[in-house]
Each structure stands twice: as C-alpha cells, then as structure tokens.
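Data card: per-record layout.
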Amino acid sequence: MTSMQILLPIALFFLMVSVGMSLRITEVFANWQRHRWGTWLCLLAATFLIPPGLALMLAKGFHLTLGETAGLFLVGAAPGAPLLTRNMAQKGFDLHMAASYQLWAALMVPVMIPLVVEAGGKLYGRDIWIPPGVLLRQITIKQLLPLAVGMVIAWLWPKMAERFSPLLSSLGNVLLVVMIALVLYKLGPVLKQLTLLVPVAALLLAIGSIGAILIFRMGSPAVRQTFAICNANRHVGLALLLTGQYVQAKNALPVVVCYALIAPLVMFAYVKVYPVKSVAPKPSLKSE
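The structure for this 288-residue chain is written out next.
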C-alpha cells in the first residue's frame, strides 16, 4: 500500500535515529558479553522458533485461510521491531538491554528467517526461499544505518542529540499513527469481513511471544521482562514485505494489521499488570 510504503520507512528512520542518540554502543556490546551460551540458545528458541510455531498451531486450530495463516506465520517469524525501544526507559525497562536484544535479533534475521520460512512452507507443500542478502539489506538500510547515524550524532554533538532525540521519537510515533489510520481507512471493508478468530489469533500470538521468554529462567526478573516485551513487538513491516514479495498470499495483510493494532495493547497491559520492580543492573563483563 502506498501510504505504508512511504510513511513506514520515514517513521522507522526517525525512531531508529532517536534510539541511536540515546545509546552507548559499549553498553550494548557489554550486554551481549554478560550472557552465557545457554541464554542465547533460549533467546534463539523464544525469538525465532516458538512464535512462528505457535502461529501455525493457532492458524490450524482456528481454521484460518491459507492467506491468513501466511500473514500470522510471517509475523511470528519476524522479530526485532524497533518501534517501542526508546519508550522502554520511561516504563522502567533497561533501554540498553532492550536495544542489545533487538540489535541481536536484527543481525540474526538473515540467518534464521530463511530457514524458518522454508520449513514452514514445506509443511504446506510449498518451496519458499528468501535470500539472506535481501533481508540483510533491509535490516542494514532500515535499522542499522539510522541507528549508527544517531550514535554518531550523539558522539559528535551530545547536546544536540539530547535536545532533538525526543522530537524525532515523537515525529516517528506520529507518522506511525497516521500510517495506521490510513491503512485502517483503506482496509475498512476488508477488516469488517474478518471473523473474530483472526484478532483472537493475533492476541494469542502476542501473549505467546511474551510467554515464550518468561518460560525460560535467564537473568533477573527485570531482564526477562525487558526481553518479553521486546519479543511481543514483532516486525510487522518486515512481515508485510515478505508476504508481498515471496509468499504472495491473499488476505495476509489484514492479519498483519490486526497484530500491529493488538500487540501494543498487549504490551501496555503487560506493563500495567507486571510493572518492572527494579531496573536491570548496569552491564558488566561478568557472566550472569
């Protein structure tokens, strides 16, 4: 859709630059070093395997159409959306921990998504291969480069970064709201035709993505809560791209839009019910 193709990249650019202005790369890397291999394996399963598996189970249990199944599955397969990272600090979450997790997920996308999508396609008798280079280019242009721009600005002009970071974040969020409103307007008749099972499936996928992190014992409660809220924040923009270019399934877009609307509500409810009691400890080189 034209509005999404124009507004989403601009909104992501503003948000990622804003996040970069608030980060210290040394702390992001230190967070990676804090965790043992067992933690990374748990995160790999919780981030890339459990959500798409849950999406397929929900689609089968609710008898969704093939297009709806594809949309839900690709949302489950695409982690690492950067949209809410900056707002985490205001809710008591560890900003650097959230950024390190989402940056790790972004770097793993070119490796894991082709394998996960190919395996999912085999279950339905289809050969779907997404070139890793395509995913790497998307991640680099839309996430890594603007993040690096924000970090460079913060390094060279710290006062300017402190002043303009909240402004860029607000602009990005406003553009996202406008984009969602335009999409809802254009998809209004289609969304009315959806059964109640589609938003229910999206709701359960968001809850399941949070639960996928919480079932593992890794780090402090604040760390697990940070990972959990990030895991529910699936990359709907990437899911839309893959749906249109590689899966080419009808009726997938409304499902992705449903998740985009429902997931923030689930994350908001999670924060209200389970507030962060303590901020995660400062990164160090010691293992947890």
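Known properties of this structure: The chain has one domain: 2-174+181-273. The first helix runs from residue 2 to 21.

See the next section for split statistics.
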